[in-house]
Structure formats: C-alpha cells, structure tokens
Amino acid sequence: MPEAPLERASSTRQIVEIVAAVVLLTIFLGASAWRQSDGLSSGTLAGTAEALGIIIAAGLTLIMYSFLYRDNPFFKAVENLYVGVGLGYGAVMTWHQALKPEVVEPIILAPSFGALGSALIVRGVPILLGFMLLTRISRKYSWPSRYSYAIMIGWYAGMGIPITIHTFILEQVNAAINPLFAPGASPLATFLSINTQIIVLVGTVSVLYYFFFSLEHKGAGKVVSRVGIIFLMVSFGASYGYTVMARISLLIGRVDFLLYDWLQRPRP
Amino acid sequence: MPETAITTVSDAELRWQLMIRRIIHLLLPIVVMVPFLCEIDMPGKPSPLVKQIYYDLEALEPGSVVLFSLDFDPGSQAELAPMTVAALRQCFKNDLHPIVMTHWFSGLGLHKRLLEETAEEFAPDKKSGRDYVLLGFRPGGQSVILSMGDSITGAFDKDYYGKITEGMDALKDVDSLRDIDYALVLSAGGTIDGMWIPYGSDRYGFPIGAGCTAVMAPDLYPFEQSKQITGIIGGLRGAADYEVLVGAPDDATSAMAAQSFAHLYIIGLVIVANIEEFVRKRSKKRE
Amino acid sequence: MWYKRYLPLVLVFLIGLLGFLTQYIPHWGSEEVVSYMARSLLIIVAFAMFIGAYSLLHMHLTRIRRQQAGWAYSLLVFVGATVMIAAGLYNEGTGPMPPLAPRGINTWLYDHVQVPCSATMFSILAFFIASAAYRTFRAKNLNALLLLIAAVIVMFGQVTISERFVNWGLYVANLFPPLHDFIVDGLGVTDTIFRKLAHFVMAAPNMAAKRGIMLGIALGAISQSLRILFGIERSYMGGGD
Amino acid sequence: MVKNPFRLWAFALVLAYAAIALCGEPPAKPLLPPADSFKAYDRPSDDGTAIGVEWAVVPGNSKNITYVLEVSTTEDFSGEVKEIRIPATGGLKSKQKKFYGSSKKNESLHYKDVLPADLFPPEKRQVEQPEENASAREKAWYSYERKKENRRFKGEKRKFNRDTDCYFRLSATNGTDTVFLEDGGVRKVVSARARANLFTWYRCNNLIPALIFSCVVMGFIRLARRNPNIFIRRIAGLDAGDEALGRATEMGRSIFFVHGLAEIGSLATIAAVNILGQLCKQVALYDSRVKVMNSTPMTMAVSQEVVKQAYTEAGRPDAYDPDDIALVAPDQFTYVAAVGGRMVRERPAAIFMIGSFAAESLILAETGASTGAIQIAGTDAYTQVPFFITTCDYTLIGEELYAASAYLSREPRLLGSLRGQDVGKIVLMAALLLGTAAVTLGTWLVAQNIEFGEFLLRLRDIVKPF
C-alpha cells in the first residue's frame, strides 16, 4: 500500500516556495545593506569584515530556522558547513593547545640536554602510546591501538571504582541520613523538616526500588514502585520545566543578536 | 511506567495538528520579541542558591585565586555567557584573580572574548598574567584535573596566548588545586558531576560553585544538599539573579521579560490543550 | 596472537588494579603515580582527538565515495574543515609554531560561522518544546498529571513575572485590608512564593528521585568498570582479531 | 531605645568579664596533664608529612592558659627550637575524625599535627626570571629550571621528613607563670618520625564495600554463565513493543528503529542492538519490515549482522534486505533532519527510539508523534526521558533499558551485573532506612540524656566519606 505523505509535493507548492524564498532573500539583503551600511562603507578592512561577518551570521541563523518549515537544501548546506568549520577549529585548537605545548615544544625547544633528556623520559612513553593510538584508523593493523586504549580505559576503570563509591554513594548516603526531627525546634519547624526529610527518604528509597529487577512488583512492592513512579514523574516534570527555560533562553539569545547586532536597534 | 492507551489518529486530524504546530511555531518568536520591542523590564529577586555562590566569592580576601572552568560552547552562550561576565566582574571588582580554563575547545574563542572584554571594562588595572590568567584548553577531562592537582603550571605549561605560566604573578601563591580558594564551574554538560566533583573537589578539597544550563540544574540538587557544591546558578534566571547581586544588570536581566512572556505562552498552550482534552473526553462520553 | 588479544587485557587489569590501589595508599609515591599517569593520559588523549576528527571525516568521505543521497553536502564539510585548517597553518603569515593570531581568518570564521550556527542549533528546540507542550502535555492519567503540574510550577516559579503576579494579586487584595493582612501575615505569602514552591519541588521530590537514580547509575558504573577490568567487556578494544 | 536586646546582653557580659578580669583574683595557675599522656607518633594513613602529638585535657585549665609545644630535631634541644602555641580550650583530638575515628576517648585529648618539613624548611634556590622580550629558548630554560627546582625542593622535604626524628617538650603558661611537664625531675621529651604509610584506614568504608560488591557482581556473572535463567521481572514496555508490531503488520507499514548518536561501545547502544535482534525475530514471522537508522558505520555494521542473524534464525533469510539498515548521517542535526524527513515521507506504523540520545530526542519524538506512529522509546540519558515520556506511547527509563536488554538477550554478563546491582540496591535501601532510624532515635535519646543515643549517632560515621 503506498503511504500517503502528509504534505503533498505539488508543482504549485514548489513555485510558491521558490517565490517566497526569493522574496525573503531580497528582504534579508535589503535589511542587511540598510542597517549595516556604516560598517560596510567604513573603509577599513576590520570594519568591513565585522559588518560582513554579522550579515553572514544573521543569514546563517535565519537559514537554520528555515528547518522549522521543512528540511531543505539550505539548512543541510549550512549544517554541513558548520560541522566542517567546527572540525577545523578543533584541529587547530588541538595543535595549539595540546600537541604543540605537550609534544612538540618540550622536545624541539628543549633548552638543554638535561631538559631534553627529562622530557624524553617523562613524555617518551605516552607519545609512543599516542602514535600507537593512531593505528586505530587502519582496520587491519589496529592492534597496537589496543595498548593505548587498555591504559586509558583500564586506569579510569580501576581508579573510578573508589571514586564513584566516594562521590556518588558514600557522600550521597551520608547526606541522605538525617534525623527526622530537630530537638528543641519549634513545632512548625519540626513539622516542615519532618515532611521534607520523609519526602526525601521515601522518594530515594522508592525510586531505588523501582529500578529493582530481581522481584516481581507485587503486593507491597507494587505500592512502593508506584510511589517511585510518582517521584520519577515529578522529577521529570521539573526537568521538563527547567528545560523549557533553557531552550527559550537560547531563542532569546538569538533574537537579541538579530535585533541588536544585525538590525542595530539601540540597546535600552 | 504504566501503559497509556495507544490510539489511532486519522490523517485529517494529523493535517490539522500540523497546521496548529505551524501556528504555535510562528507565534513563539513574536511573543519573545514583544518585550524587546516594547522595552519591558522585569527584574526579580535572587534565589538563595545563587546568593550562596555570590557570598562565597564576596567572603574571599583580595588576591585570592578563583578558578573558572568554562565548560561550554557557543551553543549555550545565551545562558552561560551572562553568568561568566557577572562572576568575572565580581572578581575584578573585589580584586580576586580569576584563572580561566575549559574542557570544551569549541568554546575557547568565546571564553577569550568574554574574559578580555570584561577585563577591558576595568582597564588599565587588569592585566593578563598579573590579575587574571587564561589557561585555555587541554584535552583529557579528568586527567587535566588530576594533573592540576599535582601542579597547575605542570598541566598548563603555557597559557592560551603561548606565554609560560611558571612564575606568573597571578599564579604566585598557587601550586596545585589544593591552593585554589574557590572554583566556579560553568558547565553545559557533564563536567560538574562527572569531573570536577569526583576528581576535583572531593579529592583536593576546594569549594565548588556550579553554574549550569537549566537543562542540567535539576540533576545537581543532590550535590547541593550533600554540600559537595556550595550553590547552583541555574540557567538564564540564575544569571539574571547573579547580575542583580553583582549590581550590574545586563543581558540576562533584560531578557527576563521575554523569558516570562514565553513561559506564560507555553503555560497558556498547556492550559488550552487540557481544556481541549477535557471537552473532547466529555463529548466522547456523550456519544 | 597473544600480543594482539591477551596482552592488552592483562594490561587493562594491571593498570586498573594500580589505579584502584592508588586510592587506598596514602604514600606520596602513590600520589606521584597518579600525577604521572594523569600527565601521560593528557598526551595520549591529545592524539585521540585526531581519531575523532578522522572518523567524522571518514564518514563523510564514504558518503561522497558511495554517492549516497545528499553526498554533495558532505563536500561542504571538507570545504569548511580545509579552510579552517589552512587558515590555522597560515596563522596570518606566522606559520603554525607561534601562538594563534588574536585576529585573523580563523577567529573570523569562528565568530561568524561557528558561533551563530552553534547558538541557533539548540534554540530550534524552543519551537519544538512549545509544540510538544501543546500536543502532549495533557492530563490523561495520574502520571501525566503529576508531570504536568511539576513542569508548570517550575516554569512559572522560575520567571520574574510570577513575582509581579503575586504583587498585583496583593494589590487587589489590599482593596479589602483584612483579606490582605490574612494573606500576608496569616499565610505568610510573599512575592517570591511561587519561586519558593518551585524550589521546594526541585529540592525535595526532584532531589530524592535524582538521588535514587544517581545511586543506581553509580552501581551500574562500578559493575561496568569491573567488567572492563576482568576482561568481560571488551567492546572498547575495537573489532578485528 | 535598644532595638536588639541581645546586644545589650552581650554588652553586659563584656562589662562583667572586664570587671572580673580587673578586680578579681590573679589569673589561675596553669595545670599540666599527667606525664604519660604526652605522646608523639607518626600520623597514620598519611603521605608522611605529619607527626601527631597528643596529651590529656586538664579540666582545671581555663581559657587564658596556653600550651607551648617545643619542637626540635635534636634530643637535647640544642639546635633550632620551634614553638607551637595551643589554647587550652582548642585542638581536641576528636576533631580529627578522619585520622583517628570517632572514639569517645579522643574528646579528652589535646592534639596537634606537626609538619616537620614545614617547620624546618630546606633552602629554596631562586631562579632568575628572564626579561619580557627574551627569546623563546631562554623562557623555556627558565620554566625548566623552575620546575626542576620545585621538584628538588619537594624531594628535600620528603627526605627531611623521612630521615629526621623530631623531639617535643610541653609546657603550659598563663602569660606570667610557666610550668614545664616533667617526668622524674627532668623535662619529659618525646620523639617521633613522620612516615609515609601504606594504607588509608579512613577509606575502609570505601574499600570494604568495593571488594564485597566486586565479589557479588563477579559471582553472579559466573552463576549466570552456568545458568542463564536468572529471574528478571518482565519489563512492561516489551509488551507494548509486541502491540506495535501487530499494528504495523495490520497496516502494512514499516517499522523504524532509531539508534541515536552513540557509538557502539556505549551500554545503551548494546542494549538497543539486543532489543533490535529480538524485534527482528518477530518481524520476520509477521512479514513486515524494519528500517534501522544509524549514525555511525560501526553501529550500522553491527545492526546488519544482528538483523541478518535474526531473520536467519526465524527461517526467513530471504526477507533480509541490507538496504533497510542505513547510515543516515553522522552529525546530530543532519541526522535529525534526515530521520525526521523519512518519518514524514514514509509514515511508519511504529517508531522505536532506543539508545543514547541528546537534545535531538525532542525533535525526533515530536516529528514522529506528528505522523501518528506508535512510538516506543528507551534511553539511559535521563535528561531526555521527560520528552520521551510526554511524546511516546511507552518509555523504557534508564536502567529499565538495560534490564530489558538482559531479559531478552540472556547474556550472562548483563544478567549477572544486573543481579549484582540489585543486591547493591538492597544494601543501599537498608542503609538509608536503618541509618535514618538510628539517627532519629539517637537524637531523641540524646535529648532525653540517655547515653546510648550518642552511640547511635556515632554509627553515622560508618558512611562518612573522607
């Protein structure tokens, strides 16, 4: 059975879309030329580059939003360009921030033989392991990379066990164990603290029980796991609410850019 | 999670929904833009979790060293850049020495700009190397922290600008992470609970304040209760609170009105949706 | 072959054991081992970044070679990366060895291509979250209702307009002073009441659930580490013999 | 007029105190602890930097009395002597829970950490700083020499700690009178040497659980190897999967399986592949098609393998089409765009989104929901779970995903770890409940002045991390 697409791609629709794209492009260029004319005609390279940069940034921003209408060639092109630029930036930063200071300079720029010797002693083995890591690129001869991975992953697996117990288990259990009432406190404060304490205790235990798989959740267990779900749902709701805030903030950031940087609205 | 009834939806209804979706999408930027165009301002009162960090920093002696780990990229710049600027301003105002590093190379250019621009506000007093240091980026995550726990100048031989860190004035009294007076980790993912708490503060014992995107904030509350972090600056609202505390309202504070409108818009959508659901259920029952 | 298959596993176990033991040995020697390992891993990880970049480029190369649908877009990845790396090598005429020039093609591309794209990318989600809220946030059952209420409390409590609303409400209540007094003094309502409510949701039920989840994840992480140490989990070793 | 009555009180107190100090008796004579309570020893569980010195608390000593601890590196105190002053009300050993536990005895002992290498530091050489415009090599030389010097300094300190005995004498003073601690007529001298220790006793509460948990997990994995029929409760979400399959067959439409962006090594992707295999076995029977959306070649290769095997096992190797398992796009948003586009065009009957997801989850789930497909999600990325719960018909939350995968695949390593983790969870639940009970009871008993309460409160220190 042929599946009916939700939006039919008719030729009229295509024409409308193309016309709309052209109109939008004209408006965009017009607005850019008008609002950024100071920068463009500043005569200095820096000023022109800055104005041009803002126009390009605004264009890219708007093209990205075109995804909301539909996945389109412009969006794909921008997305891929962005990935490429990010990749390039990553490579440049790896060179300047990691490989050059950690690997190349201590050896090439070593001020004395003593320094060279100690650099080789301290860095020799890891540099070798680093090059062995690169063999992962080859399918056939990738076995030397296993040594590098063995060291990286083995070290953190071993060291991670005590650290995980410390940070995520002992610290958390220690913080969760609290008296349910404070002696000498006012009745109201006691009531509030009991409530919060009990909520926290019940919540933690029931959520732990919800993720307990060795028993069928029946009888009393069913009640506890129901309570666990209630806590999970409240927590997911809270996360949802907070995430709304995050995403809206990002949108506000872009609106801010478009209004104040691209369209040069005076800031209040 | 117990079952929800799986229902079949007709094509006509799907098309109707698609149209509603377009309308919702179209209205959102308009709602966000209104407060900007009408220049509505809506500052608020700071929350206690944000205040804790502010007072922690206020309590430091002049000349103390504050480590900034800016673990975000431009993708979360709208939320975390205002926090960064506000906290840096507080440091410069109180004569604290910020040391800035990152675990996310893709944000490095942004961090550099934020630091330099904020330092420029206090020009000519603040100089790189003397009053602040931009250590830059090293790959390695936990390894970087462990290495800094041994020696900061050992982990970062050179700063972002290629200057040798050994003997810098700002790092004079700081040998390793144990000598850090406070660490402010502004993170867009994973580095607070994954790296700085287990490998940093729990090991070397320095206080951490967490600034994070709103997405992460709910996950950090257990650490706040266990005192593994001293406070949380959550999202743009947290940033706005911090700006108010520092006394320099800026981007985040002016965005609060737009944020409020957008939230009201979404809450409104939820209410409309539930009324619709209710009406639909009633009409079904009647049938 | 033993050196391809078994020796790495033995190495994982030995190195892991060493890492495990350093956490229980207070001797300064153990601290030295930790810092030496950390320094070494810093260097190894620097190489690992190339593997990441390579595998991404390789994927796009495969797309181009096989002429998969939309392969032409993958060319743009190469264009972007090449321009960026070339600009980095050129470094405003100074070459790759001196520090990166503060202003140049690299910074320009970063500021005006990467920053806006990256910042816009996730803001697209704001639209989807709005439409998802409309379509799916419906109180169909108790769970959905709880999720909805918690979300709305947090959403409303987080924004400053909630303080305005309370103030307006109090202003209206002030028309009838006893009511106002009852609300303010009797119930203890202040303008941050919604904020406090949101904070309560975050700090009590949410915190409890997150802690429960976290304890579970921690146990899972430890057993994962154990499986790695004892060579039961080897997916990180990659394929081949 | 006085707004704060408390301030008035404080002022009166200060006045009274001053009056006593001025007109009262001369300051009390300092008292000394018994000579045999004055001890010095290597601080346990440390890296060899400190010596602990302790002596008994003398109840009669008031606030204005100070103990003076003299430290020397020679027995006759002929060389350089350092003085450490400790107020008679401060410095209790019970404050040092990290090293000395929470024994009640420690409350009646004074304690001081002495760091010999900091008291008698070795000489530090200065390295000359180069000019601002010096060459790169000169600066590198400076950096190298500085670092070398730092290392040498550190080494010297360690050597000093290791090789030097420290000697201690104690006296007490009230400012005018000083009394010296004597033993048989001569001043009592105790000595100790700082040693680097080999075991961190205060991490026992970390090591013991680590070892026990390791044994439990490894034990259950072994057990599961012998008998893979370990009981795991059925995860309700798997039934929803069957229902979705049925619907897809009914409607004659395909099923989408969306992997997310994680690499094959991640636990979530492994679980996803296990579930995919099981799904395909049933799909082969029902005669509908599964289309798998991958983001990396590795997951694609593994998925192909799994699907092929599932079809073969179901006796329908002919139904397998490798083109159904596609490498969609490698980057987050191109992946989302491409998968979303296919969802809208092909309108699958059911969409499974199982694996590790990041921000793309919302767009995928929202687009999928808009096509009217049944959606089943499973992820261990808890930040994304809210979106799946609201937009999907069924969601496997976090560990449920692992459990489902273990349930379906019956792999010993998954089953065994799951069971081991369950044991860990029981222990944690018990610790939380019993701990709260003990602490609550203890607080109440202490409020009633019953001594047993303090013991209960001290039990809390068992889980205290250092």
Mean pLDDT of chain C: 89
Largest sheet of chain A: none
Strand content of chain A: under 5%
**Count of DSSP helices of chain C?**
8
Oligomer: heterotetramer
Q: Identify low-pLDDT runs of chain C.
A: none
Low-pLDDT sequence parts of chain A: none
Q: How large, in whole angstroms, is the Cα Rg of chain C? A: 29 Å
**What sequence of helices (H) and strands (E) makes up the elements of chain A?**
HHHHHHHH
The overall number of domains of chain C is 3
Instruction: Show the largest interface.
Output: A-C, 118 and 131 residues
Domains of chain A (count): 3
Tell me what portion of residues of chain C adopts beta-strand conformation.
under 5%
What is the helix/strand order of chain C? HHHHHHHH
User: What is the global morphology of chain A?
Assistant: extended
Number of strands of chain C: 0
Give the rounded overall mean pLDDT of chain A.
Answer: 88
- Rg from alpha-carbon coordinates of chain A: 30 Å
List the helices and strands and how they pair.
The complex is a heterotetramer of chains A (268), B (287), C (241) and D (466).
Chain B lengths: L10 H28 L9 H11 L6 E7 L5 H17 L3 E6 L5 H14 L11 E5 L4 H9 L1 H4 L26 E6 L3 H14 L3 E5 L4 H9 L6 E3 H12 L4 H36 L1
Chain C lengths: L1 H21 L5 H39 L4 H20 L14 H32 L5 H17 L2 H13 L3 H10 L6 H37 L12
Helix pairs in contact in C: 2-3, 5-8
Chain D lengths: L4 H19 L15 E4 L8 E6 L9 E7 L8 E7 L9 H4 L8 E6 L1 H4 L16 H28 L2 E8 L4 E3 L1 E2 L2 E2 L2 E3 L11 H23 L10 H15 L3 E6 L6 H20 L3 E5 L2 H17 L11 E3 L4 H15 L3 E7 L3 H11 L3 E6 L5 H7 L2 E4 L1 H11 L2 H36 L4 H8 L7
Parallel strand pairs in D: 11-12, 11-14, 12-13, 14-15, 15-16
Antiparallel strand pairs in D: 1-2, 2-5, 3-4, 3-6, 6-7, 6-10, 8-9
Helix pairs in contact in D: 5-13, 6-7, 7-8, 7-12, 9-10, 12-13, 13-14
A few lines on this structure:
The complex is a heterotetramer of chains A (268), B (287), C (241) and D (466). Chain B is an alpha/beta fold and 287 residues long.
Describe what this molecule looks like in 3D:
The complex is a heterotetramer of chains A (268), B (287), C (241) and D (466). Chain A is mainly alpha-helical. Helices cover 78% and strands 0% of the residues of chain A. Chain B is an alpha/beta fold and 287 residues long. Chain B has ten helices and six strands, in the order ααβαβαβααβαβαβαα. Chain B has helices spanning 11-38, 48-58, 77-93, 108-121, 142-150, 152-155, 191-204, 217-225, 235-246, 251-286, and strands at residues 65-71, 97-102, 133-137, 182-187, 208-212, 232-234. Chain B is elongated, with a radius of gyration of 23 Å. Chain C has 241 residues and is mainly alpha-helical. In chain C, 49% of the residues are buried. Chain D folds into three domains: 29-120 and 164-199, Sandwich (Immunoglobulin-like); 204-227 and 415-463; 237-409, Rossmann fold (3-Layer(aba) Sandwich). Helix content of chain D is 47%, strand content 17%. Chain D has helices at 5-23, 97-100, 116-119, 136-163, 204-226, 237-251, 267-286, 297-313, 332-346, 360-370, 385-391, 399-409, 412-447, 452-459; strands at residues 39-42, 51-56, 66-72, 81-87, 109-114, 166-173, 178-180, 182-183, 186-187, 190-192, 255-260, 290-294, 325-327, 350-356, 374-379, 394-397. In chain D, 42% of the residues are buried. Chains in contact: A-B, A-C, A-D, B-C, B-D, C-D. At the A-C interface, helix 3, helix 4, helix 5, helix 6 and helix 7 of A face helix 1, helix 2, helix 3, helix 4 and helix 5 of C.
